[in-house]
Design a protein that fits this description.
Order of helices and strands: EEEHEEHEHHHEHEHEEHEHEEHEH
Number of strands: 14
Helix content: 25-40%
Number of helices: 11
Strand content: 25-35%
Radius of gyration: 24 Å
Bound molecules: adenosine-5'-diphosphate
Shape: elongated
């Protein structure tokens, strides 16, 4: 449904996007992750047909975004970063304007407008100029505009930016409910969002793809993957018990909360042995958990040391 081939975007000497290629199939929710300035927005603008690449090409639903822009845009909903343009319009006027642009007519048009107003809870602000809305409402109005024509492909640039935790949750639920029959790319710098909505994540830095994997595969790269963390009434007794588990490679104690983490030797599983050893030594355990891995640590490791694009020519 979406394919990019070696897209590159240069601004003078700055290479904002540097030969990015990927494919996204129907039903996938692809998360674009990366530090600020990584090239996420630029890539999304190119795929959405709002910015021409310096070289390379992109297709949406089989249509080239540069040579068949109308067909590509018909299949696509795009939420740009920031607030919707046309801030002087009120929300009802804005949705009508988008409905006109999308050539929605008759009952179908009324139904679609009612549907997005309901889904994004815009009833109370319909008559209010967009410029006067809070950041969260502006984001929801933009999202309503992006999904109004019920497109097969959605490109959402930081869809939950500016929303409070409840609103974030609502938008994530909305994305999940749309994921079944759509192809969705979202950019985010929130790692919890990757867990909440993405089936796959691409990590980019300096305009290049550094990792392309499922969230679980990324977590498996963490040194915390398969580690066991615990809190016990006596740290010393717990450490003595853990010393008897042969497959533990290292033990760390967090000085903040006395949480103990035991790291397994490569390829080993220690959860059962840790439980048995603590029990055998009579250690009183408050909490015992097997770690899936920490995305924040994987993200830092992958993107660390990346030179800023400003330094490259
Ligand atoms: P991200 O979305 O990952 O934060 P962007 O795609 O917005 O990153 O930006 C990538 C790089 O391109 C940054 O260094 C940014 O400053 C630069 N850039 C983006 N747009 C322009 C522009 N219109 N002119 C010059 N440089 C730009």
């Amino acid at each position: 449904m979406i394919e990019t081939r070696q897209i590159t975007k240069r601004y003078g000497d700055l290479v904002a996007v540097d030969g990015i290629s990927f494919k996204v199939e129907s039903g996938q929710v692809l998360g674009f992750l990366g530090p600020n300035g990584a090239g996420k927005s630029t890539t999304m603008k190119i795929v959405a047909g709002f910015l021409a690449p310096t070289s390379g090409s992109a297709t949406v639903a089989g249509f080239d975004v540069e040579t068949q822009p109308l067909q590509a845009k018909r299949a696509l909903g795009y939420l740009p970063e920031g607030a919707p343009s046309y801030g002087e319009m009120n929300v009802r006027e804005f949705l009508n304007f988008i409905a006109d642009a999308r050539e929605l007519r008759g009952d179908a048009r009324d139904q679609r407008i009612d549907d997005v107003v309901g889904r994004l809870h815009l009833e109370a602000v319909l008559e209010q100029p967009i410029d006067t809305l809070s950041k969260g409402f502006k984001r929801r109005v933009g999202l309503a505009g992006a999904i109004l024509h019920d497109p097969k492909v959605l490109i959402l640039d930081e869809p939950t930016d500016g929303l409070d935790p409840n609103q974030k949750q609502e938008v994530r639920t909305l994305i999940n409910s749309m994921a079944r029959d759509k192809t969705i790319i979202i950019s985010t710098h929130l790692l919890e969002e990757v867990h909440a909505v993405c089936t796959r994540a691409i990590i980019i830095a300096n305009g290049r793809i550094l990792a392309d994997a499922t969230p679980a595969e990324l977590e498996a790269r963490s040194r915390y993957h398969q580690a066991v963390s615990l809190t016990a009434t006596s740290v010393q007794a717990a450490k003595e018990a853990l010393a008897r588990v042969a497959d533990i490679a290292a033990i760390e104690v967090d000085p903040q909360d006395n949480r103990i983490t035991a790291f397994p030797k490569p390829g080993r599983s220690i959860f059962v042995a840790v439980g048995d050893a603590l029990k055998a030594q009579g250690v009183v355990v408050r909490e015992l958990a097997l770690e899936a891995g920490r995305l924040d640590e994987v993200f830092r490791t992958i993107t660390l040391g990346a030179v800023g694009p400003e330094a490259r020519t």
